[in-house]
Write the structure tokens for this entry.
Amino acid sequence: MTTTSQEALARNDRYIREFVEALHLCPYAKNCRESGKLHRRVLLDARETPSALREIEALPDESVEVALLIFPHARADGIESAREFESFCADLRPSLSKFYCVAFHPDLPLDLRDAHRAVQFIRRSPDPTIQLVRASVLREVRGSNDGTRVVDPSSLTLEQLMAISAPISLSDRIADANLEMLKREDPRRLETLLTDIRRK
């Protein structure tokens, strides 16, 4: 099935607003979009990817925090499965100097056995999509959650001391919160929502 750039962007709009933002799956998504620092581009031919990445990396640092490359015709380009698309994304990483990238795909599984498996369901976008996040933004976000604490170690148990020396990372805290939310919100209802968005 062919699709236009406008149709792909409309599906992506719904995915961002009705799923990611509505369920608070990413605490930074709405602010990034509303501040104009979300850059989206539909690629109707996967061969355009290298030039698109070069153009995005050349944009001023302050203008883009997150970029989305949307591939509505990935299957026609020979990228058939979610696994193949993840491999396609992984092959792009060495060419990036300013961004980290991760693959989103409509065929990623619904698996809520633990928080890290659940992340795949959250990345079930209506079209195969590569998310680029500026590396400096990730460093800033992660650093802002590393507060300094002064404690008296003699008053703590061994377990408490271990928790302080190896605190839960920001990404792990978000993943744990998202897993709890997905379970509360009825995963099958959310799966139906994502299917509906994909069909539009």
Notes: The CA atoms of residues 27 and 140 lie 14 Å apart. The chain is about 50% helix and 10% strand. Residues 5-199 form one domain.
